[in-house]
Design a protein that fits this description.
The protein is an alpha/beta fold. Helices cover 39% and strands 19% of the residues. The protein has 20 helices and 25 strands. The strands form seven sheets. The protein has a six-stranded parallel sheet, with helices on both faces. Strands 19-18-17-20-23 form a five-stranded antiparallel sheet, with no helix packed on it. The structure holds ligand ME8.
Length: 637
C-alpha cells in the first residue's frame, strides 16, 4: 500500500510581514516533510495566507489601498520568503483563491443542512487582534492574554455552529488517541478547556460591519467568520470533496501550529470536521514561542526579525540549523544573535565543518583523492558503524516526533565520534610507516563512509549542506531526498569514488564582523585556500578590476572596518577589514585590485559591493597595487 504523508502550517495573517516565528513553523513542516520523503512516503506540504477579516481591511485602509491589492502584496512577501529560505510547498494556498471559496461554501452548506448552524443573538468580549470572542475565564486581568489589550463588548445577531453538540465526542476522541494533540501538555490543556461546558461558535459577521469575507451561502447578508473560513484551507488543498488527493492524503494529515492557536485547532476544527462527516486529523503538533528578552516575537509587539535578513547574514543552512537545534518542540525558546553565532562557530564551523574538511584533506593527501578499499576492520570501525546505525534510528524516530533537537544532537554525537576516531587512529602516524598502509586505507575508508552517512541523515534539516557534502564526497547523483530505507549497499560509499574537496562548509563568524555563509557561489570562491585547486572555468567567474579609492572613513564602532568609495568604472562602496593596518586618510588616490562580482553583503550595517585584494605576512597587511598607473575599471587577468 502507498505510504502517504500530508503536513500543513498555519496560514498566516497578511496584516504584517513574515517574521522568524512564522519561519519556524514553516521550517518545521518543511523538515518533517523531507523526513517522510527520506522514509519513502509520497508527501504533500501546504502553507499559505489567511486573507479575510477586519484586521486586513484596517491594515489596507491604513496604506490607503484596496484589501485585494494589499493582500496580494503581503501574500507575495510570504511566498517569496519561503522561496528565499529554500522552502517549496506543494501548494501555497490563499483564502481568496476561488477553489477555497468553493470548498468553504460547500462545507457551510453541509453543516447547515445537517442542522448544526443556527441564527441567534450574542453579546461578548471580542478581541480584534485574535478575531474572536473571549469568555471571562479566558481573559487575564480583563485583557486578551495574547495581545494584552482590552477586548470590546460586541452585541449582534449572527449564525452559530452547534459546537457544544460535539463536546463529548471530542473528549472521548482525545482520550482514546493519546497522540491526537501533542506534546502532551497541549493535549492536557485542551482537555482542561473541555472540562467546562463548551459554548457554540459564532461563525458569521454581518456585512454591515464587514464585507471582506466569503458570503454565507444560506444568507448573503453575512460573511463567514475567519476561523470557519481559514481552517478549511487544509481541505481545499486536497481538492475536497472531489479528486484523488483527498482520499490519498487526508488520512495522514498532520498540522503544525504554535500554542497561540491551540483552541481553534484543538476544538473548533475537529468538531467542524465531525459535523461535516469528515475524519479528524491524525496529529496536531503544537510548538512554543520564539521569544526575545522573554517576550514573544510578534508583529503586534513590534520586535520582529525578518527571516530573509538572517539568511542573508548567516546563510540559509545556518539559520535552519539554529532554529531546529535550539528549540525543544513544544517549549518556548530564546532567540539571540549571540546564541546563533555561537552555534554556527561551535557546531557548524568547528565540529562538522572541520571534521569533514580534515577527513577529505587526508583522503586527498594519502590516497590521491580516491576513496580506498577498506582493509580488515577492527573494534574501532565496528563501533563507528554501530554508532552510525544508532544515529540513524534516533534521527528517524525523534524527527517523526518533531524532536528535531534530539535528532540533531544524535547526529552531532556521531560527528564527535568521527573526530575522536581520527585522533585515536592518527592517520598521519600510520602514513609514516609503509607497513601500516592497509590500516591507513581502512581508517580513511571509514571516515568517508561515516561522513557519507551523516550527509544522508542531515538532509531534512540542512538539505543544501547534505548535497554539498555528497558532492564533495563524489556522490551527488541524487539531488533530492536520499532514500534512507533503501540506500545503496546500506549507505556504503563505493571504493574508487573520486572526492572533490571544495570550500569550507561553514566559515567561522567573527564576532562583531559577521560574514555570510558559503551560499552564494562567488563567496564560496573567496573561501578557497591555496592548497585547493580551482578549475579554469571557476577562476574565470572571478571579475577582478582595477579600482581607484575616492574616499575612505572608519565604520563607526569598528576597529577593523573601513568604508571606501571606489571607482571601478562605476562608483561603488566597499567595506574592508584593513582599519588596523591603514589609516583611512592615506587611502584616497591609491589604485587597488578588487573582486567586483561578489554578492553584496552587509558588514556592521554598511553594504559592501566589492572586496579588495590584500595579503598579510608578519609585517602586517599590504594592499595589492599595480606596478604602474592603470585606468580604473580595467579587468585584471
Ligand atoms: O493565527 N513563535 O495567523 P498568524 C513561534 N491566520 N511561532 C510563531 C510566533 C512566535 N513568536 N509568532 C507567530 C493566525 N508564530 C491564523 C492561522 S490557520 C487555519 C489560521 C507562528 O499570522 C505560529 O505558527 O497570527 C503561530 O501559530 C502562527 O505563526 C500564527 O500566525
Amino acid at each position: 500500500m502507498e505510504k502517504t504523508f500530508y503536513v500543513t502550517t498555519p496560514i498566516y495573517y497578511v496584516n504584517a510581514e513574515p517574521h522568524i516565528g512564522h519561519a519556524y513553523s514553516t521550517l518545521a513542516a518543511d523538515t518533517l516533510n523531507r523526513v517522510y520523503q527520506c522514509l519513502g512516503y509520497a508527501t504533500r506540504f501546504q502553507t499559505g495566507t489567511d486573507e479575510h477579516g477586519e484586521k486586513v481591511v484596517q491594515a489596507a485602509h491604513k496604506e490607503g489601498i484596496e484589501p485585494k491589492s494589499y493582500v496580494d502584496r503581503i501574500s507575495g512577501l510570504f511566498r517569496q520568503t519561503w522561496s528565499d529560505l529554500d522552502i517549496h510547498p506543494d501548494r501555497f494556498i490563499r483564502t481568496t483563491d476561488a477553489d477555497h471559496v468553493r470548498v468553504v461554501t460547500h462545507l457551510l452548506n453541509k453543516v447547515y443542512e445537517a442542522g448544526d448552524i443556527y441564527f441567534s443573538e450574542y453579546e461578548g468580549q471580542y478581541c480584534l487582534g485574535c478575531e474572536r470572542f473571549y469568555t471571562d475565564r479566558e481573559l487575564v486581568e480583563d485583557l486578551c492574554p495574547d495581545h494584552q489589550t482590552k477586548p470590546t463588548l460586541v452585541k449582534e445577531a449572527n449564525y452559530f455552529f452547534r459546537m457544544s453538540a460535539y463536546q463529548d465526542w471530542l473528549i472521548d476522541h482525545i482520550k482514546k488517541n493519546s497522540e491526537f494533540i501533542r506534546p502532551e501538555r497541549y493535549r492536557n490543556e485542551v482537555l482542561s478547556f473541555l472540562s467546562e461546558p463548551l459554548e457554540d461558535l459564532c461563525i458569521s459577521r454581518p456585512k454591515s460591519r464587514l464585507t471582506w469575507g466569503i458570503p454565507l451561502p444560506f444568507d448573503d447578508r453575512f460573511v463567514t467568520y475567519v476561523w470557519f473560513d481559514a481552517l478549511i484551507n487544509y481541505l481545499t488543498g486536497l481538492d475536497f470533496p472531489q479528486g484523488d488527493l483527498f482520499p490519498r492524503f487526508w488520512p495522514s494529515v498532520q498540522h503544525i501550529i504554535a500554542k497561540d492557536i491551540l483552541k481553534p485547532h484543538g476544538i473548533y476544527w475537529p468538531t467542524m470536521l465531525k459535523a461535516a462527516g469528515v475524519e479528524p486529523y491524525q496529529h496536531l503538533n503544537v510548538h512554543g514561542y520564539w521569544n526575545m528578552d522573554q517576550t514573544k516575537i510578534s508583529k503586534s509587539l513590534g520586535n520582529v526579525i525578518r527571516p530573509k535578513d538572517l539568511a542573508d547574514r548567516f546563510g540559509i543552512e545556518a539559520v535552519r540549523y539554529f532554529f531546529l537545534r535550539e528549540m525543544v518542540f513544544g517549549l518556548d525558546a530564546q532567540f539571540s544573535e549571540e546564541a546563533m553565532i555561537q552555534r554556527i562557530n561551535a557546531d557548524l564551523a568547528n565540529n562538522l565543518g572541520n571534521c569533514f574538511s580534515r577527513s577529505l584533506t587526508m583522503i586527498e593527501k594519502y590516497c590521491q583523492g580516491v576513496v580506498p578499499q577498506t582493509g580488515e576492520t577492527g573494534p574501532a570501525e565496528e563501533n563507528l558503524k554501530q554508532l552510525a546505525r544508532q544515529a540513524r534510528e534516533t534521527v528517524q524516530l525523534e524527527a517523526q516526533r518533531l524532536a528535531f533537537h534530539k535528532a540533531l544532537m544524535s547526529l552531532w554525537e556521531l560527528v564527535d565520534e568521527v573526530n575522536k576516531y581520527i585522533d585515536s587512529q592518527a592517520p598521519w602516524a600510520l602514513a609514516k610507516d609503509p607497513g601500516k598502509n592497509p590500516r591507513l586505507m581502512t581508517v580513511l575508508y571509514h571516515l568517508a563512509e561515516t561522513l557519507y552517512r551523516v550527509s544522508l541523515l542531515l538532509f531534512p534539516f540542512m538539505p543544501r549542506t547534505s548535497l554539498q557534502m555528497r558532492q564533495q564526497l563524489g556522490l551527488e547523483e541524487n539531488q533530492g531526498a536520499p532514500e534512507w530505507e533503501t540506500g545503496k549497499n546500506g549507505c556504503a560509499i563505493p571504493a574508487g569514488t573520486r572526492i572533490r574537496k571544495g570550500p569550507a562548509l561553514f566559515p567561522r563568524i567573527e564576532t562583531g564582523n559577521p560574514k555570510p555563509d558559503s551560499t552564494p557561489p562567488s563567496r564560496k570562491a573567496a573561501a578557497v585556500s591555496i592548497s585547493e585547486t580551482l578549475s579554469l572555468e571557476e577562476f574565470q567567474k572571478w571579475d577582478l578590476r582595477i579600482a581607484k579609492v575616492l574616499s575612505a572613513e572608519r565604520v563607526p564602532k569598528s576597529k577593523k572596518l573601513v568604508k571606501m568609495e571606489v571607482d571601478l568604472g562605476e562608483k561603488r562602496t566597499l567595506v574592508a577589514g584593513i582599519g588596523e593596518d591603514y589609516n583611512p586618510e592615506e587611502l584616497p588616490g591609491k589604485t587597488i585590485v578588487v573582486v567586483a562580482n561578489l554578492e553584496p553583503t552587509k558588514l556592521m550595517g554598511v553594504e559592501s559591493r566589492a572586496m579588495l585584494l590584500a595579503a598579510r605576512d608578519e609585517g602586517g597587511l599590504k594592499l595589492i597595487v599595480p606596478e604602474e598607473k592603470i585606468l580604473p575599471g580595467t579587468r585584471v587577468k
